[in-house]
Structures are given as structure tokens and as C-alpha cells.
Please model this.
Amino acid sequence: MSDSTNNKIVIDKHSGFCSGVINAIKTAEMWLAKEPALYCLGDIVHNNEELQRLTAMGLQIISHEEFKQLHHARVLIRAHGEPPETYQIARQNDIELVDATCKVVLNLQKTIHQFYKSQQFNHGQILIFGKEGHAEVVGLLGQTAQHGIVISSIQDIHKIDFSRPSMLYSQTTQNISEYQEVIAKIQEKYDALNRSEYFSYAHTICHSVIHRAQQIQQFAAHFEKVIFVSGEKSSNGLYLFDICKKTNPHTFFISNIEQLKEIPIRNEDHIGICGATSTPMWLMELVKKQLEIIINNS
Ligand code: SF4
Model:
């Protein structure tokens, strides 16, 4: 096989797991190496290929309903974090928690919790810009005893009571441009009511997500074709794919190497491979190898 493909297919060196996901996976591997009985509450990472690798090592993914029935077991909490209720169930059921909540998410949970405790006196509202039902958002809402209001998009702004003050936070993996649009719209509403000072917000999108978005845009612009590798359930994956696609219309979304068959590849193509904060580097390397085979056989 010729190595002429080596410089035509490039993996984005900034793509792949973020520090929070790396920590959760290393923690799981460490416990599995000691003793193979480890449960994980929800998918440890939104990537089926990586999930299969870890479940083959013994990791058992359980739902929140299954967690409630569990007793005397060891359960890993993934990077997204959990609401206080999960810790309470663990204490009641003698469950040992291995807490791999990302430090960035943990800090946000603490900030929201402290604000919730302090703002009850002046009847303010806590707003969370995020995806309804997403694990991280469920964990953040738990810090407000379910009194927080989830704002998924500008269309949800009607949920806000503009006669009361509001404090807005964002889920760590949200789209920064959409967050800025939501901030501007809410501010506009308060301004129109001469209550500008009623509204505050915090910059809580994770820096690695913001940097990744900027880097991936530059990366995607360099190639004739871009193969974006991600699990379909990854919100960060869908967000970064959208940026790539807008930058380079010849961007293709795949979750596994089988899907490469659907993509028209030419021998002379200069191809970039990138992915989400939940995409393992080994999978992008596998995609590169498979592309080299396709090109060398064409
Ligand atoms: S994207 Fe940021 S906040 Fe989310 S797990 Fe990764 S490092 Fe943590």
C-alpha cells in the first residue's frame, strides 16, 4: 500500500475527548481493572463505539429507574453530573458512588445551588439555557429544587415572569451564539419594561467547548471534504457538526466506519477528520485507516 494518502487525510489534533470525559473514562477503567462490578448511571459518553468498548470490559449502564431498585452496589456518576436526589437514593440504598462529575459542571452546580439558596428571599427566577431532559440540565435543575426554568431556545422566553428578577445560566455545552441571542432578547424585554436591572446572566459555557468551536471552524475551512465523527445523541457533536457544515458544505456526519460507504470519496481528495468532545481518538484513527484503504483501492 502506498503512503501517498498520509498527507491528504488529516485528523484534527484538537478533536476528541475533553478533560471531563477523559476523567470519567479513566475512572471507569481504573475501577474495572480492580473489580469488574461497576454500574454507570446513564451512558458514560454519547458515543456508541466507545460505550461498546467499555461495556465489553464489564461496565453496566443502568437507567435512573434501575438505579432506584439497586442496593449495595458501586455506581459511577458520569461527567454530566446528577441532581441531589441521586445522592440521597445512594445513601438510602447503600450504594457506593464513584463520582466522575466534571469539575466545570460541579462548579456550575454549586454556583446555582448557592444562588438558589440566596435568591429565595427576593422572589427571583433561575433560568437555565439548555436542552430539556439533558442529563446535565437535570442535574442543574436539581440544585433549584425544580424551581428553575429551562430555556431551550428564544421560543421559550414566554416562560419568564418579567415582573420578577431573573438570573440566567447556560448548560456547559450550549451554542454560544444562541446563548448570546437569548441574553439579548431577555434583556430587551426587561428594558422595554424599564426593569433593566432585574436581569443578570453568567458566562457558563465550558471554555473547551468555546475553543473547540473556533478551532473546528478553522480546521473545516482547510479541506475539500470533512468527515465529522460523533454519536448521534451528542449535543456537542450536533453543535460542532453544524459549525463544520456551515464552514464547509462538503462535511459528512458519521458515527462508525460502515457509514463511509455512503460518502463519495475521490482519489485526489484532501480530507479532514474531526469530531465532538465525546468522540474517541481511536475511532477517528480507524476512520483515517479506512479512508486510506478506500482511496488506495479506488
Ligand atoms: S465539555 Fe467541558 S464541562 Fe462538559 S464534560 Fe467536557 S470539560 Fe466538562
